[in-house]
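> call design_seq(struct)
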């Protein structure tokens, strides 16, 4: 495939929007706390291209645009980590420097120890989701986060079955079909499908989801990480 060189933000989104989404998904796997902030980072990334006229600085003689974009995304994410250090590294001491300084050190996070840490953090996030007291709010977060590791309790299954007017044993297959219906680069269930399950309006779901994540997951995650040191 020919390397496409965008000259506007619209072309960047058209040609490389999926690559940017894939990069964000990789960071969500490394840093579970990043999931709730992923839209903020994506907006900040595009603003960086606008504010600094980065597209004009691209030199096709030095690298493919895809390589150039990857480096820009890495640098933007490192800056994002630094500006949100208390969320991503709540357990680090004042003089610690857990942040990667450049692209090479950033990519070195993909070692075995980091994988174990990420897996443990994902499990911690799932446990925090299960502690959300109201069933409809808990289901909203589970459906927005939905992946193969998310499990539903019997109470939640019956609640979904009642809302969809289906048998409880049909719930899992229905949720999986809803998950497949989303865009390829999206995470979780579509807002329109969530509205079939829960009594929320489509326009309110994203805002409510962010509020619930900050209240029940991010704040608790930071507290548990800090208190465990």
């Amino acid at each position: 495939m020919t390397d496409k060189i965008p000259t506007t933000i619209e072309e960047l989104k058209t040609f490389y929007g999926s690559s940017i989404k894939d990069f964000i998904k990789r960071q969500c796997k490394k840093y579970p706390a990043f999931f709730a902030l992923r839209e903020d980072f994506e907006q900040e990334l595009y603003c960086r291209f606008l504010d600094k006229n980065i597209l004009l600085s691209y030199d096709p003689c030095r690298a493919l645009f895809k390589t150039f974009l990857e480096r820009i995304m890495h640098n933007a994410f490192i800056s994002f980590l630094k500006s949100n250090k208390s969320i991503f590294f709540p357990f680090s001491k004042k003089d610690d420097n857990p942040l990667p300084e450049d692209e090479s050190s950033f990519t070195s996070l993909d070692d075995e120890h980091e994988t174990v840490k990420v897996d443990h953090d994902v499990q911690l996030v799932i446990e925090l989701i299960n502690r959300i007291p109201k069933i409809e709010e808990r289901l909203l977060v589970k459906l927005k986060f939905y992946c193969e590791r998310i499990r539903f309790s019997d109470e939640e299954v019956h609640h979904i079955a009642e809302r969809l007017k289906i048998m409880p044993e049909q719930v899992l297959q229905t949720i999986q079909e809803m998950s497949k219906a989303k865009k390829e680069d999206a995470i979780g269930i579509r807002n329109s499908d969530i509205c079939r399950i829960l009594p929320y309006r489509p326009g309110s779901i994203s805002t409510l989801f962010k509020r619930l994540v900050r209240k029940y997951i991010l704040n608790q995650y930071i507290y548990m990480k800090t208190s465990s040191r």
